Amino acid sequence: MKKISSNYLFITKNVFPALWFGILAFVMVIMIVSRAYERAPIAIVVPCLMAIFGYFMMKKLVWDLVDEVYDYGDFLLVRNHGEEEKVPLSDIINVSATVLVNPPRVTLRLVKPGKFGEEISFSPIRPFTINPFARNQVTDDLITRVDRARSKRLV
Fold this sequence. Notes:
By secondary structure, the protein is of the alpha+beta class. Helices cover 44% and strands 25% of the residues. The chain has four helices and seven strands. The chain has helices at 9-34, 36-39, 42-61, 137-154, and strands spanning 2-3, 68-71, 75-80, 83-88, 92-97, 106-114, 117-122. It has a four-stranded antiparallel sheet, with no helix packed on it. Strands 5-6-7 form a three-stranded antiparallel sheet. It is elongated and about 70 Å long.
């Protein structure tokens, strides 16, 4: 068993959004208390737009990531919000990875929807690198093994 998902996902999924919305709420309260919005009404619109933008970006890029993914060789154990699902490598149609997105994402497209839907996305472990275009070894290994498992299933 080897954990292939990032250890920093708690910070990404919980701490960062709390800071984002907390700071925006704090700015709004300060502007309302100081009545700064009377001098520049647009000043109240900017934090609202930032909150809306932040919500949709986090919904699309962060909140749909599963909590943990463990590699057991011929299947992956996926955990999210206290629930678990075993995903055989032969049940994965496609493995795709993003480039230049933070947090990095790996999306597994499944043959049939499971407990977490037809796509499972997670943030893989990544070594420190200065090269933003460096390939992720976890992703490359998973692509190779999924292809091998799929070809065995078809034979």
